[in-house]
């Protein structure tokens, strides 16, 4: 069947060649058309220059000693990776980051799903709510950190002031920096506040593709709303959930601004990307920094593949 | 659309795309700016534009205009936060890329920057020797026999007290020894004047390290020797005692427990400026004028003053942490940058910035000139908040590291503030924290 702006020929469709008759035989020695390549050249150069080349450098130099204070650059095999494993701060930060990922991906997905379901069916003011919802997502992490530091601040922060005002305690409780789990959970709460809007929008977009007839049929069959959610909404939203979980995974694995602003360099909240910064730009040991970046990238890819493998399902309507 | 129109559209799209591709390639292949030795300016400074990147707001436009009129040099000011600027300096130097003609030289990075040769030696451009008598902190910016930068302000650590709270506790004479000072703080707490009389910022950040250095100095010691060996490992050493004193103050309730997550500026704003703390042992010079005496930001205007830092047997010297400026090696116009630095640190400009010559060129409210003569003039004119005390204290200010900060200072400082913070948070004892810091210093000094 011919498509708009396209002509089917021998099972293939050529876009933008609608003037050629469908029955025309494939011309021999057809002239090479450079246009598609020219058109994708800018973005290709952009991606190659800003993503692939630096990535290649990172991979290569992670096997070299690249230390500004200890020149020259020299091959170091797996030395940088071994040094990272022996670095207590890195190991401790890896534990914190695992907690950030668990809390962040889990909480943002559950919250995003809940909000998306609440917004699934049109109602008055839905557009406004969606517009307001994305505001935290638009704020830079550093700004959020500063904003929330006024909430968590132990001596004059909002939470402690509220506790004191309501006579629920002395109002000088230590929220961040003492208990590791509490510190990580509170910092991650700030990031969840930031990334849940995007999670919501991704799942919301997937929910908009579910035909209303399915819910009507389920209702006729006597399915409860919970049953409809489990049997229709959840399976049909899986592509959106998978994408949302992957973006949350990437964000939480790379968390930097929030712990750095809210908790400084303290081991109770430091993340692996903070260690990358310290190693590279504070200690000027770029080789180890590259190695840690590579490890973070590989872990991100591996976990993303797992999410896609277990969460993503192709939905055909 | 006809075939001709279609072809025209295709050609136009191809041309735009090709141009974009060529532009991107050109941008990607360019060096990002020629370093000093490749400059086409040939050392001339007339009609030159330089970029000055500092972690502070620009001076008043009137001052920069006057500089342009005097030299023909236009200044583009790039303000950046301190952390980002240090990252830019490192990234630009490592990549051999231009980003500014003059930029921040932090006292703590002088050793590192000097060793790496990332900044041009200022003695090649300016008569540094003649400045030494006038700028007591010039030595803090020399490393490896070269002047990496020049101080443009005279920031140093001082002890501040809320005289009102001290008087309410019946303390009319400000203590001059640490023992008397600690006893006074206990009295203030016991009499219920304030619950937590002392402010120590225990957040894991640079402010905690500098607090410990100042306290160590007050206990009569130094942090590292000339070879970078730790001088604080033994229990009877000043650095060890200083750490114990700080952690003990927290454990004894002289410092709010929540301060383990309070950095220096938070402590100044939420405790000292609100009258919730009676003293900060290691505070920053200039804060009386820029914060404590500012209506709206402070509830204790006129009540906080600088005092000689209490020491073991009497007042101790203060440690300097001035802000400096230097010329990165990749500067496009080092001659013009040098002229700017000369003007920026001149007596006339410093007096302008400090407000001695009228309000047009006053720069901020916490500016303490790096030139002693200007500080003295300010104090005499009564233009510097608590200037009389400040000028006196500045005379005794000395570098944190008399032999220059070691090249590995940033890594060392990280060990200092993370370990002292951990001790404050109860994760380890003060003794274990000091041992961990000493071990790290030994490791770094040995080059392993």
Q: What does the model show?
A:
The complex is a heterodimer of chains A (about 325) and B (about 450). Chain A has about 325 residues and is mainly α. Chain A has a single domain, classed as MetI-like fold. Chain A contains 14 helices and four strands. With about 450 residues, chain B is α/β, with parallel strands linked by helices. Chain B folds into two domains: about 40-155 and about 320-400, D-Maltodextrin-Binding Protein, domain 2; about 155-315 and about 410-445, Periplasmic binding protein-like II (D-Maltodextrin-Binding Protein, domain 2, 3-Layer(aba) Sandwich), CATH 3.40.190.10. Chain B has 16 helices and twelve strands. The longest helix of chain B has 27 residues, at about 5-30. Chain B starts with a helix and ends with a helix. At the A-B interface, helix 1 and helix 13 of A face helix 1, helix 3, helix 4, helix 9 and helix 15 of B.
What tags apply to this protein structure?
heterodimer; A: 317 residues; mainly alpha; MetI-like fold; two-stranded antiparallel sheet; flat; disordered N terminus; B: 448 residues; alpha/beta; D-Maltodextrin-Binding Protein, domain 2; 3-stranded antiparallel β-sheet; 42% helix; 11% strand
Rg over alpha carbons of chain B = 25 Å
Provide the domain count of chain A.
Answer: 1
Number of domains of chain B: 2
Predict the CATH topology of the largest domain in chain B: D-Maltodextrin-Binding Protein, domain 2
What structural class is derived from the secondary structure elements of chain B? alpha/beta
- DSSP helix fraction of chain A: 55-70%
Main sheet of chain B? Answer: 5 strands, mixed
Main pleated-sheet profile of chain A: 2 strands, antiparallel
Spatial arrangement of strands, main beta sheet of chain A:
1-2
Number of strands of chain A: 4
Question: Given the structure, what is the number of helices of chain A?
Answer: 14
N-to-C SSE series of chain B? HEHEHEHEEEEHHHHHEHEEEHHHHEHH
CATH topology of chain A: MetI-like fold
Based on the structure given, which CATH architecture of the largest domain in chain B is correct?
Answer: 3-Layer(aba) Sandwich
Kindly state the percentage of residues in helix of chain B: 40-55%
Basic shape of chain A = flat
């Amino acid at each position: 069947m011919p498509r708009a702006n396209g002509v089917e020929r021998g099972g293939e469709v050529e876009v933008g060649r609608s003037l050629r008759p469908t029955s025309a035989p494939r011309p021999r020695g057809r002239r090479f058309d450079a246009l598609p390549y020219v058109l994708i050249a800018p973005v290709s150069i952009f991606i190659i220059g800003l993503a692939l080349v630096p990535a290649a450098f990172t991979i290569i130099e992670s096997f070299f000693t690249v230390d500004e204070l200890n020149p020259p650059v020299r091959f170091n095999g797996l030395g940088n990776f071994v040094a990272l494993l022996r670095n207590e701060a890195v190991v401790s930060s890896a534990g914190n980051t695992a907690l950030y990922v668990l809390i962040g991906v889990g909480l943002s997905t559950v919250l995003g799903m809940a909000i998306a379901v609440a917004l699934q069916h049109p109602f008055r003011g839905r557009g406004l709510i969606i517009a307001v919802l994305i505001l935290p997502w638009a704020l830079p992490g550093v700004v959020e950190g500063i904003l929330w530091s006024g909430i968590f601040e132990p001596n004059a922060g909002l939470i402690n002031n509220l506790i004191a005002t309501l006579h629920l305690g002395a109002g000088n409780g230590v929220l961040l920096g003492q208990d590791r789990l509490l510190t990580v959970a509170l910092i991650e709460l700030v990031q969840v506040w930031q990334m849940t809007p995007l999670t919501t929008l991704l799942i919301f977009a997937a929910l908009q593709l579910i035909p209303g007839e399915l819910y009507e049929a389920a209702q006729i069959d006597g399915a409860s709303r919970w049953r409809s959610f489990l049997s229709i909404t959840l399976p049909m939203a899986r592509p959106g959930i998978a994408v949302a979980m992957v973006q949350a995974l990437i964000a939480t694995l790379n968390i930097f601004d929030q712990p750095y602003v809210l908790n400084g360099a303290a081991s109770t909240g430091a993340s692996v990307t903070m260690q990358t910064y310290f190693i590279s730009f504070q200690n000027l040991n770029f080789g180890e920094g590259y190695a840690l970046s590579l490890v973070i990238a590989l872990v991100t890819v591996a976990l993303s593949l797992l999410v896609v493998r277990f969460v993503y399902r192709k939905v055909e309507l | 659309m006809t075939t001709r129109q279609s072809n025209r559209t295709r050609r136009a799209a191809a041309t735009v795309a090709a141009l974009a591709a060529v532009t991107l390639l050109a941008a990607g292949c360019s060096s990002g700016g020629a370093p000093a030795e490749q400059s086409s300016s040939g050392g001339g400074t007339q009609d030159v534009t330089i970029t000055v990147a500092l972690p502070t707001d620009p001076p008043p436009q009137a001052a920069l205009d006057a500089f342009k009129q005097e030299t023909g040099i236009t200044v583009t000011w790039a303000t950046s936060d301190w952390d980002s600027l240090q990252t830019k300096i490192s990234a630009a130097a490592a990549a051999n890329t231009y980003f500014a003609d003059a930029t921040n030289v932090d006292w703590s990075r002088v050793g590192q920057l000097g060793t790496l040769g990332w900044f041009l030696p200022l003695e090649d451009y300016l008569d540094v020797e003649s400045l030494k008598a006038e700028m007591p902190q010039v030595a803090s910016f020399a490393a490896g026999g070269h002047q990496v930068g020049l101080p443009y302000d005279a920031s140093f650590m001082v002890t501040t007290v809320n005289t009102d709270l001290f008087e309410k506790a019946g303390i009319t004479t400000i203590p001059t020894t640490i023992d008397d000072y600690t006893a006074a703080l206990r009295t203030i707490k016991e009499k219920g004047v304030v619950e937590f009389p002392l402010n120590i910022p225990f957040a894991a950040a640079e402010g905690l390290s500098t607090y410990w250095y100042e306290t160590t100095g007050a206990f009569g010691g130094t942090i590292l020797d000339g070879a970078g060996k730790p001088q604080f490992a033994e229990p009877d050493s000043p650095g060890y005692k200083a750490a114990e004193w700080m952690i003990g103050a927290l454990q004894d309730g002289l410092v709010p427990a929540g301060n383990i997550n309070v950095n220096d500026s938070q402590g100044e704003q939420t405790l000292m400026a609100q009258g919730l703390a009676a003293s900060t042992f290691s505070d920053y010079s200039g804060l009386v004028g820029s914060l404590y005496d500012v209506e709206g930001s402070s509830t204790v205007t006129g009540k906080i003053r600088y005092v000689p830092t209490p020491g073991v047997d009497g007042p101790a010297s203060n440690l300097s942490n001035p802000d400096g400026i230097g010329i990165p090696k990749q500067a496009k116009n080092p001659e013009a940058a040098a002229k700017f630095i000369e003007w920026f640190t001149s007596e006339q400009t410093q007096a302008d910035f400090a407000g001695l010559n009228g309000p047009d060129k006053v720069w901020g409210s916490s500016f303490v000139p790096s030139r002693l003569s200007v500080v003295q003039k300010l104090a005499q004119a009564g233009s510097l908040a608590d200037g009389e005390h400040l000028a006196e204290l500045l005379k005794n200010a000395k570098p944190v590291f008399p032999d220059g900060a070691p090249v590995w200072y940033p890594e060392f400082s990280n060990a200092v503030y993370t370990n002292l913070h951990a001790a404050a948070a109860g994760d380890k004892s003060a003794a274990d924290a000091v041992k961990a810091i000493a071990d790290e210093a030994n490791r770094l000094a040995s080059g392993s």
